[in-house]
From TrEMBL:
The protein, known as: HNH endonuclease
Keyword Nuclease: yes
Signal peptide: none
Organism phylogeny: Bacteria, Bacillati, Actinomycetota, Actinomycetes, Micrococcales
Gene Ontology MF term list: endonuclease activity
Keywords assigned by UniProt, alphabetized: Endonuclease, Hydrolase, Nuclease
Cross-referenced SMART domains: HNHc
KW 4Fe-4S (keyword) present: no
Length: 456
């Protein structure tokens, strides 16, 4: 027992553990087989646990012998220190922080006898005892001691089979069971600490930071996970175009074959990138919602400024109101494609000469019609629902494309971003519905109906 000051059993455990490690000393790890290396790692970890048990037992005894009530007989005072950890630092030459941690950990373990025994026997390491003991310790003043012992016993058993992170999760669950009333004040404090900030633009990126209460985070996480999940929805692939073999017209209109065909355009986004795209889509949809508060009589709108030539060609830069770095004219063109634009003529001195009407903006009625037809992003495999999508002109407006349902389709922000540079191409079929194909170099798949497949 650490609290009892006896380390005989711990010393025996250390000797047994070292006996198993000794044949591999001096270390020649490259010469070990995989199985031998795994076994050696386990044995070495046991040696460490046994050694840690001894250091904590020593710290506990230094603490006992350095009690201030002992006066001049205090071991710390005899060694010229004020506190027991100062004495340990002097004797062992460890750092002040580590010496103090040993004493505090030994004091904490004394309040959890089951964990103390497990550490004394080498069954638990200091790290394991810390992560499972911290949440349980908070419940000690109010919880039934017998229930605390049961919780610690189960956590020790769990720690023998699972990594410390999994045992820590279980310890938090046990803490909520032992002291259910303790959750509410933590929750209230968390609500007061919630925040979300958007920093200034640097190198084309804006840093988003924040803290959310569990309730808010869970709602957001559920939406993100549903659309990041790689298993959500059926995997859709294009059949290789006969043109790849050099003997067919890429405008061939054979039907789409699904499920197991080759040569698909793959979504290269990471899960983190998908989450960022989904969050953007959710806020864009919220800006269009009827119940969203207006700003200056209009729903929240991104104000992007560029020239007519740069907007039409997609070359140059544009400026977003409120941001300190420019975006590309290509990005401005995509924003205008989804939300419309207003032409303003300025004099060389900045005087407004003419303010045109908003152009190329799909109406809410047109969006509802597109939502009923497309049901979501029409790129195969994408599960983004209609309410989060942007509208896209199949025939570009600069080429005479009209702002109507026949010449439009729904795309998520990411695929709208890709549509001009590939690998996808879109067009309107003879019956007025969108068709899609993918192009790689001189090769192209057949044109096929663009059909949204929702997440399952």
């Amino acid at each position: 027992m650490i609290g009892g000051g006896s380390v005989t059993a711990v010393g025996e455990g250390l000797g047994a553990a070292f006996h198993r490690v000794e044949p591999s000393l001096p270390l020649r790890l490259p010469a070990l087989t995989d199985d031998q290396l795994v076994g050696f790692a386990q044995d070495a970890e046991e040696v460490l646990r046994q050694a840690e048990a001894i250091t904590l037992a020593v710290a506990r005894e230094f603490d006992r012998r350095s009690d201030e009530s002992l006066g001049e007989d205090s071991l710390a005072r005899k060694l010229g220190a004020k506190k027991p950890w100062g004495a340990i630092e002097t004797v062992t030459r460890t750092s002040a922080g580590d010496a103090r941690a040993r004493v505090l950990e030994s004091r904490a373990l004394a309040k959890l006898p089951v964990l103390e025994d497990a550490v004394s026997s080498g069954a638990l390491s200091r790290a394991q005892a810390e992560v499972i003991g911290a949440p349980i310790l908070k419940t000690v003043p109010v919880a039934d001691p017998a229930a605390v012992d049961i919780a610690c016993t189960e956590l020790v058993e769990l720690s023998a089979a699972l990594p410390a992170s999994a045992a820590a999760d279980a310890a938090r669950v046990w803490a909520a069971v032992l002291d259910p009333d303790g959750v509410e004040p933590v929750e209230k404090a968390a609500i007061e600490k919630r925040f979300l900030t958007l920093g200034p633009a640097r190198n084309g990126l804006v840093k988003l930071t924040g803290l959310l209460p569990i309730e808010q985070a869970a709602a957001i996480r559920a939406v993100l996970d549903a659309h990041v999940n790689p298993r959500a929805g059926a995997e859709v692939r294009f059949t290789p175009s006969p043109d790849v073999l050099g003997d067919a017209d890429p405008d061939d209109t054979k039907p789409l074959l699904t499920g197991t065909l080759d040569l698909p355009p793959v979504d290269t986004r990471s899960a983190k990138q998908k989450r960022a795209d989904i969050l953007h889509a959710v806020f864009t949809a919220a800006a269009r919602a009827p119940q969203t508060p207006t700003m200056g009589g209009a729903h929240p709108t991104i104000l992007v400024t560029t020239t007519k030539d740069e907007l039409e060609t997609g070359h140059g830069v544009a400026w977003v109101d409120g941001e300190n770095e420019p975006i590309s004219a290509h990005a401005a063109k995509r924003i205008a494609d989804a939300g419309g634009y207003q032409e303003v003529d300025l004099s060389p001195t900045g005087e407004i000469l003419n303010l045109g009407r908003t152009q190329r903006c799909f109406t809410p009625q047109q969006r509802r019609a597109l939502a009923a037809r497309d049901k979501g992003c029409i790129i195969p495999g994408c599960t983004t629902p209609a309410r989060w999508c942007e509208t896209h002109h199949l025939t570009p407006w600069k080429d005479g494309g009209k702002t109507n349902v026949i010449n439009a389709a729904l795309l998520c922000w990411w695929h709208h971003h890709l549509i001009d540079d590939g690998p996808y191409q879109l067009r309107t079929s003879k019956d007025g519905t969108p068709e899609i194909r993918w192009v790689y170099g001189s090769h192209a798949s057949p044109w096929v109906p663009a059909i949204h497949r929702p997440a399952r």
